[in-house]
Design brief:
With about 110 residues, the protein is α+β, with helices and mostly antiparallel strands. It contains three helices and five strands.
Length: about 110
């Protein structure tokens, strides 16, 4: 199950944020773990390794969401999370492996004419 894979990845990456992609392939939902390269960009948030994203995109039918954790397990989406969710137009998931909880946000739809 994709949730267990995400929890395992988050546990393994502690104390850093884990990040990955929620994908649909051959009718199945799965978790695709990615490398967090935020340290290369001097940012406090997560940054998915572009090569990981590209390989995933070429290997599955569809990317349907972004999954990540917060090192302190704060289960609130940051302003950067919300902005990225809207920019990428993908559902964002936040996982906490300690409590086995997952929350998500959807992109906001703007009615620009």
């Amino acid at each position: 199950m994709w949730k267990e894979k995400a929890f395992e990845h988050a546990t393994k990456e502690q104390p850093l944020e884990c990040c990955g992609l929620l994908v649909k392939d051959k009718g199945e939902i799965d978790y695709w773990p990615c490398r967090n390269v935020a340290f290369k960009h001097d940012v406090a948030n997560f940054v998915i390794e572009p090569d990981d994203w590209a390989i995933c995109e070429d290997s599955v039918d569809e990317i349907i969401g972004i999954v990540h954790s917060h090192p302190e397990f704060n289960m609130e989406f940051s302003p950067a999370d919300k902005a990225s969710c809207n920019a990428l137009e993908l559902r964002f998931y936040l996982v906490n492996p300690n409590t086995k909880s997952i929350i998500y946000i959807d992109p906001e739809i703007s009615n620009v004419n």
